[in-house]
């Protein structure tokens, strides 16, 4: 790739990585000894991260949740016993373990235990409907499940001989994690290190979620270090991770925190007031969210955002960040907002810093260290600077393929993100929208994001989604679904006029529907297929 290929030199990457690792204290001799011992025992997986932290910071809280505090050494010991217990109930190394839990300590412990037992984790979405979950469990050949008591009804599989372990809560007739852990403590079984290949599920906004196989490789680790180069994490930070842990973004933040020996504060369910309370009570320095969470906190008038003044980093990813939300958040909370652009398949592609979001609120930032991004046309040829085309990403964090077969288009080592966008003259990346979200109305191409951002900037609009619906004359026409701000009244004409005054006529929604809320995934992405039916 040459034209419009944004990347960094090898020397720059290696120099930046060294400085980042040094500044974070990862070269501390005691930490290196603990890390070496953990890697020798468990291999390159999440188990070694927590074991290393237990060796270096044994009494430091690893997790704080609704049940209190759990230290690193306690988590390490409990997860080892649980790993033996999981093997004791019939699971075998190399099999898939489904993890269906909210954000709390049991999710983390089961995750670490699976790695120690040689099991591959399939991260299950807590928002699944029973039929959808049943299909995923069968397709991914899940041999056993760890699930919360309140989520057990979703399994809906009478007669299944799949071992099920209840995490948070109790279900009559089923083993609890406590029971399995207790049997594991009595077993002398030897745990053999094995490189794990976890399975993350895509968002499923256009159909049944696909399984994306991940792997642990050195190139992927170097790519992950790019996150630390662009976002100023510190060893010992206190993280409030509000984004779902079963999603790639929440999981990555859990891994970052464990790498730094940091404390993670978790809550089973997100609420604007609960999130602010957690940040204030635990004096958190890092908050991890998906954009819709920022949106909800900003719109909740009873929430005092000033209580979060101790935050140094607000890290957002998982969905598009509306420009108005970015600016409103920084105006009210401070210039601490960082936005990561990437996907389950391609890994991280770009990171926007507060300065970049101030200068160009719609940007997803500059290409992340360790990644390369190219803008290609429909025939896979590089486009010149400023031209809009398909976004392709190259790094060591690309997924290995879908578990059901197939993958993403790859051109010269660059993988399709499925998005369309362009680079500005100063090297900032802008995402226009999803390629499959594009609406063709009367021969004109329209990406809904442009219209949505404009409408969301209206004071009386709390949320909005724009989709294409069939039209006999134009092929498709634009339909806008509007959530009005509390206590306000909007008219169809106001919505159309707001767009018509700023954009071309073919971008004005012909259908305007007011709704109480938009259908979203648990990570905040709009379920567009549920609109316009």
Structure description:
- With 533 residues, the protein is α/β, with parallel strands linked by helices.
- The chain folds into three domains: 43-192, Rossmann fold; 223-434, Rossmann fold (3-Layer(aba) Sandwich); 438-530, GMP Synthetase, Chain A, domain 3, CATH 3.30.300.
- The strands form six sheets. The protein has a nine-stranded mixed β-sheet, sandwiched between helices. Strands 1, 18, 19, 20, 21 and 22 form a six-stranded antiparallel β-sheet that branches. The chain has a five-stranded parallel β-sheet with strand order 5-4-6-7-8, with helices on both faces.
- Strand 20 (410-411) and strand 21 form a beta hairpin.
- Helix 11 (291-299) crosses helix 12.
Summed up, what is this model?
31% of the residues lie in helices and 24% in strands.
Key phrases:
3 domains, globular, Rossmann fold, 24% strand, GMP Synthetase, Chain A, domain 3, 6-stranded antiparallel beta sheet, 15 helices, single chain, alpha/beta, 533 residues
- Please name the CATH architecture of the largest domain: 3-Layer(aba) Sandwich
CATH topology of the largest domain: Rossmann fold
Major β-sheet strand ordering: 3-2-12-11-13-14-15-16-17
Write down the CATH class of the largest domain: Alpha Beta
The share of residues in extended strands comes to: 15-25%
Number of domains: 3
